[in-house]
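Q: Could you fold this chain for me?
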Amino acid sequence: MATLLRSKLSNVATSVSNKSQAKMSGMFARMGFQAATDEEAVGFAHCDDLDMEHRQGLQMDILKSDGGEEGAEPPLEGDIHYQRDGTGPLPPSASKEAGVCSELSGQGKPKITAWEAGWNVTNAIQGMFVLGLPYAILHGGYLGLFLIIFAAVVCCYTGKILIACLYEENEDGEIVRVRDSYVDIANACCTPRFPTLGGRIVNVAQIIELVMTCILYVVVSGNLMYNSFPNLPVSQKSWSIIATAVLLPCAFLKNLKAVSKFSLLCTLAHFVINILVIAYCLSRARDWAWDKVKFYIDVKKFPISIGIIVFSYTSQIFLPSLEGNMQNPKEFHCMMNWTHIAACILKGLFALVAYLTWADETKEVITDNLPSTIRAVVNIFLVAKALLSYPLPFFAAVEVLERSLFQDGNRAFFPNCYGGDGRLKSWGLTLRCALVVFTLLMAIYVPHFALLMGLTGSLTGAGLCFLLPSLFHLKLLWRKLLWHHVFFDVAIFVIGGICSVSGFIHSLEGLIEAFRTNAED
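A: Sure. Below is the predicted structure, expressed as structure tokens.
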């Protein structure tokens, strides 16, 4: 028995070691400004993995042998037993990680405040993809403005119920945190028949969203440079190739320490750009075309606008990690309220003011409407932000893929892409370069910012922000929910499903048509 137990613990320790670095991807994917350093994030990842493995695979009953009995075999080294309440001793291989967890929980480095958490959420939902919102108003009119408000309310609510799924009552009636991530919640909903199916679905959705985000950065870089220098004999595709050449060193990234240092500066620069655009629009307030804001919608293109609006609010994927790292998790609800209220007001004003200024001439990326005298300067700053933001989702996508396909213990589909010394093998580096090239090819053949953004928002954005949180909330906590919570969850699931399917179909049709047109050219 001792031998079998040691074997199981050894396998689990190996799995924890292989997967620990990949857990930081959920937070890095959507954070422009990191509230913690890379070393802290890795430390929190170890804590999350140890907790997850303890709950899923190591919750074993104590194998006792009466100490008073004669002939009782003393416990062997490594013959460690875990209790269901988590009070059992830790194995030697995990004792160091437990120290890290203890240090990060407050004895060493402090956790983030509500204001810092709010900054991270604001950075996630107020990124450069806000530049596509005026285009959504072009096809949705006042209904588009209503959807900006509606999406803020729904995303705020689903963020809260997603965090509620992390907690359960213990035997003493106390509310305790029993899960740590979106994947944990998904797996809990699919247990016991398919204990890993939910996590795989969430991981696939996360990979799609991250890769599509990378593609959007390449598309917007080529678009902005082409419209900034229209007199140069360089096409948008050529600008995309140049941007990808600059991004190719991302394949050699080992961590995001160097990149994350620029994130705060990029975010501040983006806010300045938004202010400049609004200031220019206000200077033309006398010419605003209020009569162009319509109450009817473009049936073919408005579903794409839904995806654009939803995609601009996506932040749920990293909220569990963010809430777990807050000094006072009780302030999470208040933080979600003011961040989404602020986002709703700023997005609504930005979209409306920009559309009133250019009306039917509004372009997919609103900065393309600026006069040529200031367009080049603004767009160059935006391109710099896009290029510096690209490594974040790229690195997160690479880690999820490497963990799932090459490092997931005995469940990996391919051999480990890292050598014994921890260095990336040549064929692993080739796969990373191939992912960069793939984002370039997609940007070249489908150089349509709004269509790609609408497709991503309809597919993964609506799924991660609307459908899955409401479904998980009903599945895990339905016995304790009040009737109005059940009503909200069902309504969000139905409305989100309709919007997701409609937006996905119309975005896909537009992409297929665009792909055929580019193929013919």
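A (continued): The first helix runs from residue 2 to 19.
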